[in-house]
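[job 4417] fold queue: 2 targets
>>> target A
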Amino acid sequence: MGKTKFKLKVDARKFFDEKYHEKIMAQQDWEHNCIPLQLLDEVERVYIDYGHDRLNSDKKCASSNLCGWESKQKDSEGQSHYQFTLKIQDISNKEYQKVNVPILMDELQKVANTYFKHL
């Protein structure tokens, strides 16, 4: 099994800088930032990480948080984008091969539409 990952509890977010609100990290990384385990929730095997992974100039993985809003005309409604990465811990190649991406996307689309109907 891989390293257990944690995220800040929803109720604890108001006490910390926004940069920690969407972070998912190993316990020692939270401790390095002086955030105790009692304020964290363990993430499940499948979790959504904000942004996407990319390689930096040293060929090491670096995260990039991407979102934005734009409008063609001033004071008009525009469009936004949010980029996420679906991460699955401890998945076998056999399980990986069984993932039906179009069906998964359909299910995620339903959840996203429900969320945005309530804004």
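>>> target B
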Amino acid sequence: MPHTNEKVMVEQDVSVYRCDWCGKVIEFHFFHPRACLICKRFACEGHRAPWHIAYVGDYEESHCGECWETGLCYREEIEMHEIAIESLNDQWICEAKMIAMGFNKVEE
């Protein structure tokens, strides 16, 4: 069979991310842009400066400045509860280990 050249139309979906503050197309090369975890908005480099970005393991958690500021009082209270939870967890582990070693539960 002889070789022939044919033109073929190919359809491809391309994701375009736009900054929710200025409408500029967000350029990306390797990773897709991350939206704010709370409001789901995207920001260009110029509007990303006030964002709070933290890494949990190898995963990036991003919050826009507005959502981060709104959560200040909540995060302070959450941190207090996390400290209390950690303390209770330590007490539970300590008591369970003591019981496993044959010591009776200390009566309060």
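[job 4417] complete. Note on B: Strands lie at 52-56, 59-63.
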